[in-house]
Amino acid sequence: MRSFASDNNSGVHPAVMEALRQANTDHAVGYGADPWTAQAVRTVRAAFETPDCEPLFVFNGTGANVTALQLLTRPYHLILCAETAHIYVDECGSPAKMSGAQIRPIQTPDGKLTPELIRPHLHGFGDEHHSQPRAIYLSQCTELGTVYTPDELKAITALAHEYGMYVHMDGARIANACVALKCSLRAMTVDCGIDILSFGGTKNGLMVGECVVVFNSLFSGEAKFGRKQSAQLASKMRYLSCQFTAYLTNDLWLSNAGHANQMAARLYAALKEVPGVRFTQKPEANQLFLVMPRPIIDRLLQDYFFYFWNEAANEIRLVTSFDTTEADIDAFIRTLKTIEL
User: Fold this and answer.
1) pLDDT of 341 above 70
2) Which domain covers residue 149, as residue numbers?
3) For 151-174, how does the pLDDT look when each residue is reduced to its tens digit (9 = 90+)?
4) In total, how many domains does the chain have?
5) Is 4 inside a domain boundary?
6) What is the DSSP letter of 213?
7) Which of 200, 218, 251 is the endpoint of a domain?
8) What phi and psi, each to the nearest 5 degrees, are found at residue 325?
9) Quick one: average pLDDT of 84-102?
10) Helix residue spans in the chain (DSSP H)
11) Per-residue pLDDT, 200
């Protein structure tokens, strides 16, 4: 079944599969002391144009977020995030459990934090009765499919650093954001003052694995210990790391995300002409949020798998991937147009 449920449902890009095949040769020293991991570290540093950043390959997105937030916080700290944030909604409380820090959600209309939304929560510093504000968590793209501009990111990081706080970016879909804004990885992160990034790949052609990229040198020395304590140190590291070399070679990450965004734009163009369809968020990358009559949704679910975002409001989410085809979209629209209320 072809799916619009999530870019996690997509396959593995052939170039990544080939990298895995080539890495599956003979024996190699474990835990990252292998040539594939050394090459991947060099490749990540080059991609972000930051030779002194510290890339840490991990198993998954939740593990990447936990590893990053444990580096930035202590159990008496406070993490601020949007109320729709992945760490607050979709990670079963693991960031709070593993870091011990309190997570405070902030209501937003579009999934994006702003200095104005954050500032009211910046109080209690030095008061031993209150969790100390320490980290701000951002998703790029957000869980509502919206995208932070570099200027918006810089405003948030400037505020955070003014108060002695740090910013963690969950970049599960950062490639889609870079395509949307025609922006480099460095311009989206380092140049904006991001301290630590969870650099995603499984939503964009990788089989498994993410990469925590530590930009702030204050945390580089402790990073590998945090990864180990978070149960994210792979013994056969080459199978995680080799994928990132393929991913970042010949701009595969960029072309994959570009295709996903183009397919979302095609799907949006077709859906907005359908009576009864209304979009609830501005389509900016590869996620679409929309409402339509419930009988239509129920009929579509017979042939396609996708998620409700707000079932009470008949709001659904459709996501395109690097391997979504024009035929997939055209078939979906044909099915939609045959449904009679």
Assistant:
1) no
2) 15-251
3) 999 999 999 999 999 999 999 999
4) 2
5) no
6) E
7) 251
8) -110, 160
9) 96
10) 14-23, 35-47, 61-72, 86-89, 94-99, 115-118, 150-162, 174-181, 185-188, 220-229, 238-248, 252-271, 294-300, 326-338
11) 95
